[in-house]
Amino acid sequence: MREMHKVRVELGASSYDIFIGEDLLPEISDFVKAQNFSHKALVISDENVGKIYGERTLAALREAGLEPALHLVPAGEASKSLAVADEIFTHAIELGLDRRSPVFALGGGVVGDLAGFIAAAYMRGVPFVQLPTSLLAQVDSSVGGKVAVNHRLGKNLIGAFYQPAAVFADLATFATLPEREIRTGLGEIIKYGIIFDADFFAALEDHAADALRLSHDAALFMVERSCEIKAEVVAKDEKEGGLRRILNYGHTIAHAIEKETGYARYNHGEAVAIGSLGAAYISEALGMIDDADVLRVRRLTERLGLPLFAEGCTVEGLYAAIFHDKKTVDGKVNWVLMEGIGKVCVRDDVPESIVRTAMARCLRF
């Protein structure tokens, strides 16, 4: 019998399940049959993932009684744009999708964010199902309902909070992931240990080799625990009024790195890994943690094959970029900072000199 785990995201009327296991197409089909969806559906994927999983996904949806169409976008962050969204809106209108027509996101974080944005805006909201195929998407972007596209002045600035009807995290899709895509997921997984669960962080330290090769047991453990942590945080603060801000640990510097390098040199998890170290350096400079905590974060980051430094950036460029981040309010940056492994807080009183020094430690010139 196939092993399948479920994590519930408790959000009242917007609650949903995350299904975690291998070869979940039968579960996807059964789920669709139980819904009150219209027959016409849209599956959004990128050109890489669509070639591998597009047809089998369409077949499962047809078996469930849908008439799905597949829309492919170029792989990469550049597809998270209003221009690409407009093309998809046009396709949806031409297909005759109505207010009960489901949108399926088949792919990584870019596809999930883009498809979720489409679902949230089309006809003021249509059903949305996440089918994440990357480690990063399964542990982070597919859960929690933050959907968006980018603007040339900043990442994820145009979007909404829009929860999916369900998430299907199929571990079998990891078989086709390039090594770099595995590492980028690990960058977000380290974050969960830092912000919420010291035991989880320690388990990653103890089993770093298994995590890096993504053994079945390690993959199941990391995806399930990461989803549990995010589900608990989101259930308490769906729209980022307080607690949910901790999920942004490492992201302020990460988004600046991505912007400064044109969203091309570093993928998201790599940037988060560097940004997480930057936040640790700030925390240490403020006397919130000692150098032993910083060393643990640095060592685990390195053991999991993630970068410790960013190239192609300047401190001046990074510092300017953080003021276009969503976490900046009234000119003050809300920094998520460490109080220890497993515990963080939010502060908006970090001196500019400390930020610039931490950024310099994150760069290789």
From TrEMBL:
It is found in: Cytoplasm. Binds 1 divalent metal cation per subunit. Can use either Co(2+) or Zn(2+). Residues 72-183 form the 3-dehydroquinate synthase N-terminal domain. Pathway: Metabolic intermediate biosynthesis; chorismate biosynthesis; chorismate from D-erythrose 4-phosphate and phosphoenolpyruvate: step 2/7. Gene3D superfamilies: 3.40.50.1970, Dehydroquinate synthase-like - alpha domain (1.20.1090.10). Residues 185-328 form the 3-dehydroquinate synthase C-terminal domain. Zn(2+) binds at E188, H251, H268. NAD(+) binds at G109, V110, V111, G112, D113, T133, S134, K146, K155, T173, F174, A175, T176. One of its GO terms (cellular component) is cytoplasm. One of its GO terms (molecular function) is nucleotide binding. Its EC number is 4.2.3.4. GO terms for biological process: amino acid biosynthetic process; aromatic amino acid family biosynthetic process; chorismate biosynthetic process. Its cofactor is NAD(+); Co(2+); Zn(2+). The keyword Cytoplasm applies. CDD domains: DHQS. Keywords: Amino-acid biosynthesis, Aromatic amino acid biosynthesis, Cobalt, Cytoplasm, Lyase, Metal-binding, NAD, Nucleotide-binding, Zinc. It is an enzyme of class 4 (lyase). The keyword GTP-binding does not apply. It catalyses: 7-phospho-2-dehydro-3-deoxy-D-arabino-heptonate = 3-dehydroquinate + phosphate. Belongs to the sugar phosphate cyclases superfamily. Dehydroquinate synthase family. NCBIfam families: aroB. Catalyzes the conversion of 3-deoxy-D-arabino-heptulosonate 7-phosphate (DAHP) to dehydroquinate (DHQ). This is 3-dehydroquinate synthase. It comes from Selenomonas sputigena (strain ATCC 35185 / DSM 20758 / CCUG 44933 / VPI D19B-28). The lineage of its organism: Bacteria, Bacillati, Bacillota, Negativicutes, Selenomonadales. The gene is aroB.
